[in-house]
């Protein structure tokens, strides 16, 4: 009857792509591991990475993360890494084929939503299968968000 509860540590978000939820219609979300060098991990722990314009693409049966910026680790001296190098993502084969087919057939994009450290301290990337929004769709999303905010305000005032 006594269940052991795991002490859940909050995951530390290093980089967040908040703009992606506005620019894209987010579909299915995946969690992927990422291969990093030692200096990249130390630089990520300082929390200055950006994934605002990054995307993932399949190449030779593997997924790669392109254009993610991880700054140089200043104490690493000459053993530093390239800041925007392509980084291999660790996914199951079935997930890779699913993402690759969706990009080829449906014209979707694989967008990086965030980089974080999980409970075990491993760096993970949250990927989403997304479809780009047109300008009128973005205006509609802003209207819905504003109306939701106004509705919540009215409900607080009345109740």
UniProtKB/TrEMBL annotation:
Region (Disordered), start-end ranges: 139-159
One protein family per Pfam: SmpB
Localization, UniProt: Cytoplasm
Keyword check for RNA-binding: yes
Molecular function per GO: RNA binding
PROSITE patterns on file: SSRP (PS01317)
Biological process terms in GO annotation: trans-translation; trans-translation-dependent protein tagging
Superkingdom in the source lineage: Bacteria
InterPro entries, per the entry: SmpB (IPR023620), SsrA-bd_prot (IPR000037), SsrA-bd_prot_CS (IPR020081)
Keywords recorded for this protein, A-Z: Cytoplasm, RNA-binding
GO cellular component, one term: cytosol
Described purpose of this protein according to its UniProt entry: Required for rescue of stalled ribosomes mediated by trans-translation. Binds to transfer-messenger RNA (tmRNA), required for stable association of tmRNA with ribosomes. tmRNA and SmpB together mimic tRNA shape, replacing the anticodon stem-loop with SmpB. tmRNA is encoded by the ssrA gene; the 2 termini fold to resemble tRNA(Ala) and it encodes a 'tag peptide', a short internal open reading frame. During trans-translation Ala-aminoacylated tmRNA acts like a tRNA, entering the A-site of stalled ribosomes, displacing the stalled mRNA.
Family: Belongs to the SmpB family.
Entries under NCBIfam families matching the protein: PRK05422.1 (NF003843), smpB (TIGR00086)
Record's protein name: SsrA-binding protein
Organism from which the protein derives: Aquabacter spiritensis
């Amino acid at each position: 009857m006594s269940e052991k509860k795991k002490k859940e540590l909050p995951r530390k978000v290093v980089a967040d792509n908040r703009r992606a939820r506005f620019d894209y219609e987010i579909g299915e979300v995946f969690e992927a591991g990422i291969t990093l060098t030692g200096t990249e991990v130390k630089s990520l722990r300082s929390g200055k990475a950006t994934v605002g314009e990054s995307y993932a693409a399949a190449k030779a049966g593997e997924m790669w993360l392109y254009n993610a910026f991880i700054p140089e680790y200043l104490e690493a001296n000459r053993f530093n890494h390239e800041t925007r190098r392509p980084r291999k993502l660790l996914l199951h084969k079935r997930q890779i084929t699913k993402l690759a087919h969706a990009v080829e057939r449906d014209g979707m994009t694989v967008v990086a939503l965030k980089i974080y450290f999980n409970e075990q301290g491993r760096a993970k990337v949250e990927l989403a299968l997304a479809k780009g929004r047109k300008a009128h769709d973005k205006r509609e999303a802003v209207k819905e968000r504003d109306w939701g905010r106004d509705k919540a305000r009215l409900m607080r005032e009345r109740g």
